[in-house]
Amino acid sequence: GNSVTQMEGPVTLSEEAFLTINCTYTATGYPSLFWYVQYPGEGLQLLLKATKADDKGSNKGFEATYRKETTSFHLEKGSVQVSDSAVYFCALSDRDTDKLIFGTGTRLQVFP
Amino acid sequence: DVKVTQSSRYLVKRTGEKVFLECVQDMDHENMFWYRQDPGLGLRLIYFSYDVKMKEKGDIPEGYSVSREKKERFSLILESASTNQTSMYLCASNQLSAGTDTQYFGPGTRLTVL
Protein backbone atom coordinates (compact mmCIF):
# COMPACT_ATOMS: atom_id res chain seq x y z
CA GLY A 1 0.00 0.00 0.00
CA ASN A 2 0.91 3.66 -0.10
CA SER A 3 3.16 5.03 2.62
CA VAL A 4 5.37 7.98 3.54
CA THR A 5 8.58 7.88 5.55
CA GLN A 6 10.18 11.02 6.90
CA MET A 7 13.14 11.61 9.15
CA GLU A 8 12.55 11.62 12.85
CA GLY A 9 13.10 14.76 14.81
CA PRO A 10 13.61 16.92 16.48
CA VAL A 11 15.86 18.77 14.11
CA THR A 12 17.66 21.52 15.99
CA LEU A 13 19.34 24.33 14.07
CA SER A 14 20.75 27.77 14.60
CA GLU A 15 19.20 30.69 12.77
CA GLU A 16 20.42 31.04 9.14
CA ALA A 17 21.48 27.37 8.95
CA PHE A 18 20.58 25.19 5.96
CA LEU A 19 17.63 22.82 6.43
CA THR A 20 16.90 19.45 4.86
CA ILE A 21 14.08 17.20 5.99
CA ASN A 22 14.05 13.91 4.12
CA CYS A 23 10.87 12.33 2.82
CA THR A 24 10.48 9.17 0.75
CA TYR A 25 7.32 7.49 -0.39
CA THR A 26 5.90 4.22 -1.67
CA ALA A 27 2.95 4.48 -4.00
CA THR A 28 1.20 2.84 -6.88
CA GLY A 29 0.58 5.16 -9.75
CA TYR A 30 1.50 8.84 -9.69
CA PRO A 31 0.46 10.56 -6.50
CA SER A 32 0.67 14.26 -5.74
CA LEU A 33 3.11 15.14 -2.95
CA PHE A 34 2.69 17.73 -0.23
CA TRP A 35 4.48 19.37 2.65
CA TYR A 36 2.25 20.68 5.43
CA VAL A 37 3.39 22.73 8.42
CA GLN A 38 1.85 22.91 11.88
CA TYR A 39 2.79 25.88 14.03
CA PRO A 40 2.31 25.55 17.80
CA GLY A 41 -1.35 25.44 18.80
CA GLU A 42 -2.63 25.47 15.23
CA GLY A 43 -3.97 23.11 12.60
CA LEU A 44 -2.02 22.09 9.52
CA GLN A 45 -1.54 24.40 6.58
CA LEU A 46 -0.13 23.70 3.16
CA LEU A 47 3.48 24.72 2.72
CA LEU A 48 4.03 23.51 -0.86
CA LYS A 49 3.04 20.77 -3.26
CA ALA A 50 4.00 19.07 -6.51
CA THR A 51 1.60 17.13 -8.68
CA LYS A 52 3.90 15.39 -11.14
CA ALA A 53 7.43 14.11 -11.50
CA ASP A 54 10.21 16.75 -11.68
CA ASP A 55 7.86 19.50 -10.45
CA LYS A 56 9.36 21.78 -7.82
CA GLY A 57 7.10 23.23 -5.17
CA SER A 58 8.22 26.37 -3.37
CA ASN A 59 6.88 28.78 -0.77
CA LYS A 60 8.34 31.08 1.92
CA GLY A 61 11.89 30.11 0.94
CA PHE A 62 11.16 26.38 1.24
CA GLU A 63 11.34 24.10 -1.76
CA ALA A 64 11.00 20.43 -2.63
CA THR A 65 11.35 18.54 -5.91
CA TYR A 66 9.25 15.51 -6.87
CA ARG A 67 11.85 12.85 -7.72
CA LYS A 68 10.20 9.78 -9.18
CA GLU A 69 13.47 7.90 -9.72
CA THR A 70 14.33 8.07 -6.01
CA THR A 71 10.70 8.27 -4.78
CA SER A 72 11.63 11.30 -2.70
CA PHE A 73 10.32 14.78 -1.90
CA HIS A 74 12.91 16.29 0.43
CA LEU A 75 12.19 19.68 1.98
CA GLU A 76 14.97 22.30 1.90
CA LYS A 77 15.49 25.88 2.98
CA GLY A 78 18.69 27.81 2.60
CA SER A 79 18.47 29.92 5.74
CA VAL A 80 16.03 29.10 8.53
CA GLN A 81 14.51 31.60 10.93
CA VAL A 82 13.27 31.20 14.49
CA SER A 83 9.74 31.64 13.13
CA ASP A 84 10.16 28.42 11.08
CA SER A 85 10.04 26.38 14.29
CA ALA A 86 7.11 24.01 13.75
CA VAL A 87 6.23 20.42 12.89
CA TYR A 88 6.54 19.51 9.21
CA PHE A 89 4.53 16.72 7.61
CA CYS A 90 5.20 15.09 4.27
CA ALA A 91 2.14 13.57 2.59
CA LEU A 92 0.99 11.92 -0.60
CA SER A 93 -2.50 11.81 -2.04
CA ASP A 94 -4.39 8.90 -3.46
CA ARG A 95 -5.66 9.89 -6.89
CA ASP A 96 -8.63 7.57 -6.65
CA THR A 97 -9.98 8.80 -3.33
CA ASP A 98 -8.30 12.19 -2.59
CA LYS A 99 -7.13 10.69 0.71
CA LEU A 100 -3.88 11.99 2.17
CA ILE A 101 -1.32 9.65 3.67
CA PHE A 102 0.99 11.40 6.12
CA GLY A 103 4.43 10.79 7.45
CA THR A 104 4.90 10.91 11.21
CA GLY A 105 6.05 14.53 11.22
CA THR A 106 9.41 16.17 11.95
CA ARG A 107 9.73 18.82 14.62
CA LEU A 108 12.07 21.68 13.71
CA GLN A 109 13.49 23.89 16.44
CA VAL A 110 15.46 26.98 15.39
CA PHE A 111 17.43 28.90 18.00
CA PRO A 112 18.71 32.47 17.67
CA ASP B 1 -9.86 32.42 2.07
CA VAL B 2 -11.05 28.93 2.80
CA LYS B 3 -12.22 28.54 6.33
CA VAL B 4 -12.66 25.30 8.23
CA THR B 5 -13.97 25.69 11.75
CA GLN B 6 -14.29 23.18 14.54
CA SER B 7 -16.79 23.53 17.35
CA SER B 8 -14.33 23.38 20.26
CA ARG B 9 -10.60 23.86 20.74
CA TYR B 10 -10.52 21.92 24.01
CA LEU B 11 -12.95 19.34 25.34
CA VAL B 12 -12.92 17.21 28.49
CA LYS B 13 -15.29 14.25 28.71
CA ARG B 14 -15.76 11.23 30.94
CA THR B 15 -15.46 7.59 29.94
CA GLY B 16 -18.69 6.31 28.45
CA GLU B 17 -20.03 9.70 27.38
CA LYS B 18 -21.25 10.29 23.85
CA VAL B 19 -19.13 12.99 22.24
CA PHE B 20 -19.89 15.10 19.18
CA LEU B 21 -17.19 16.98 17.29
CA GLU B 22 -18.47 19.38 14.66
CA CYS B 23 -16.71 20.70 11.59
CA VAL B 24 -17.94 23.33 9.13
CA GLN B 25 -16.32 24.50 5.88
CA ASP B 26 -17.38 27.51 3.84
CA MET B 27 -15.96 26.69 0.39
CA ASP B 28 -18.55 24.26 -0.97
CA HIS B 29 -16.01 21.43 -0.91
CA GLU B 30 -17.19 17.94 -1.78
CA ASN B 31 -14.66 16.09 0.37
CA MET B 32 -14.42 16.26 4.14
CA PHE B 33 -12.11 14.29 6.42
CA TRP B 34 -11.59 13.52 10.10
CA TYR B 35 -8.11 12.68 11.39
CA ARG B 36 -6.62 12.08 14.77
CA GLN B 37 -3.11 13.22 15.55
CA ASP B 38 -0.94 11.45 18.12
CA PRO B 39 2.76 11.97 18.90
CA GLY B 40 4.98 9.68 16.87
CA LEU B 41 2.09 8.47 14.72
CA GLY B 42 1.39 11.51 12.58
CA LEU B 43 -2.15 11.95 11.29
CA ARG B 44 -4.38 8.94 10.81
CA LEU B 45 -7.62 9.05 8.85
CA ILE B 46 -10.74 8.06 10.78
CA TYR B 47 -13.51 8.67 8.23
CA PHE B 48 -14.07 10.69 5.12
CA SER B 49 -17.00 11.80 3.05
CA TYR B 50 -17.15 12.80 -0.60
CA ASP B 51 -20.78 13.88 -0.68
CA VAL B 52 -23.78 14.52 1.51
CA LYS B 53 -24.88 11.35 3.32
CA MET B 54 -21.88 9.48 1.89
CA LYS B 55 -19.12 8.21 4.14
CA GLU B 56 -16.21 5.84 3.96
CA LYS B 57 -14.05 4.32 6.63
CA GLY B 58 -10.49 5.45 6.93
CA ASP B 59 -7.66 3.60 8.59
CA ILE B 60 -8.89 3.68 12.20
CA PRO B 61 -12.73 3.87 12.25
CA GLU B 62 -13.30 1.64 15.29
CA GLY B 63 -15.14 3.44 18.07
CA TYR B 64 -16.20 6.33 15.82
CA SER B 65 -19.08 7.19 13.52
CA VAL B 66 -19.78 10.22 11.33
CA SER B 67 -22.68 12.18 9.94
CA ARG B 68 -22.91 14.43 6.91
CA GLU B 69 -26.44 15.78 6.49
CA LYS B 70 -25.37 19.03 4.82
CA LYS B 71 -22.50 19.64 2.43
CA GLU B 72 -20.75 22.13 4.69
CA ARG B 73 -20.92 20.14 7.93
CA PHE B 74 -19.21 16.89 8.92
CA SER B 75 -19.65 15.53 12.44
CA LEU B 76 -17.52 12.98 14.24
CA ILE B 77 -19.25 10.97 16.95
CA LEU B 78 -17.66 8.96 19.72
CA GLU B 79 -20.50 6.67 20.76
CA SER B 80 -18.95 5.78 24.13
CA ALA B 81 -15.75 7.68 24.80
CA SER B 82 -12.77 5.78 26.13
CA THR B 83 -9.44 6.99 27.51
CA ASN B 84 -7.58 5.74 24.43
CA GLN B 85 -9.54 8.26 22.38
CA THR B 86 -7.75 11.12 24.13
CA SER B 87 -6.13 12.87 21.19
CA MET B 88 -6.06 15.87 18.89
CA TYR B 89 -8.81 15.68 16.25
CA LEU B 90 -8.42 17.54 12.97
CA CYS B 91 -11.02 18.14 10.31
CA ALA B 92 -10.15 18.95 6.70
CA SER B 93 -11.88 19.57 3.39
CA ASN B 94 -11.06 19.86 -0.30
CA GLN B 95 -12.45 19.58 -3.81
CA LEU B 96 -12.84 16.34 -5.67
CA SER B 97 -9.62 16.54 -7.66
CA ALA B 98 -7.97 13.18 -8.36
CA GLY B 99 -5.63 13.90 -5.50
CA THR B 100 -4.23 17.23 -6.65
CA ASP B 101 -6.17 19.64 -4.46
CA THR B 102 -4.87 20.95 -1.15
CA GLN B 103 -6.68 19.82 1.96
CA TYR B 104 -7.63 22.72 4.24
CA PHE B 105 -7.52 22.03 7.94
CA GLY B 106 -9.39 23.35 10.92
CA PRO B 107 -7.52 24.39 14.10
CA GLY B 108 -8.14 21.06 15.83
CA THR B 109 -9.99 19.89 18.93
CA ARG B 110 -7.91 18.54 21.79
CA LEU B 111 -10.11 15.93 23.47
CA THR B 112 -9.30 14.53 26.89
CA VAL B 113 -11.29 11.53 28.12
CA LEU B 114 -11.05 10.95 31.86
Kindly describe this structure:
The complex is a heterodimer of chains A (112) and B (114). Chain A is globular. With 112 residues, chain A is mostly beta strands. Chain A has strands at residues 3-6, 11-14, 19-21, 23-26, 33-38, 44-50, 56-59, 62-65, 75-77, 86-93, 100-102, 106-111. Chain B is built from no helices and eleven strands. Chain B is globular, with a radius of gyration of 13 Å. The N and C termini of chain B lie far apart (37 Å). The model of chain B has no long low-confidence stretch (mean pLDDT 93). The A-B interface holds A 31-32, 34, 36, 42-46, 49, 51, 89, 93-100, 102-105 and B 4, 31, 33, 40-45, 48, 50, 56, 58, 90, 92, 94, 96-108.
Low-pLDDT segments of chain B: none
Radius of gyration of chain B: 13 Å
Number of DSSP helical runs of chain B? 0
Q: Give the strand content of chain B.
A: over 45%
Strand content of chain A: over 45%
Oligomerization status of the protein chains: heterodimer
| Estimated structural class of chain B | mainly beta
Q: Mind telling me the C-alpha Rg of chain A?
A: 13 Å
Largest sheet of chain B: 7 strands, mixed
What's the number of extended β-strand segments of chain B? 11
Uncertain spans of chain A, ≥5 residues at pLDDT below 50? none
The string of secondary-structure elements of chain B, in order, is EEEEEEEEEEE
Query: Biggest β-sheet of chain A: count, sense, barrel?
Result: 6 strands, mixed
State the helix count of chain A: 0
Summarize the helix and strand pattern of chain A as letters: EEEEEEEEEEEE
Largest interface summary: A-B, 24 and 29 residues
Q: What is the rounded distance between the termini of chain B? A: 37 Å
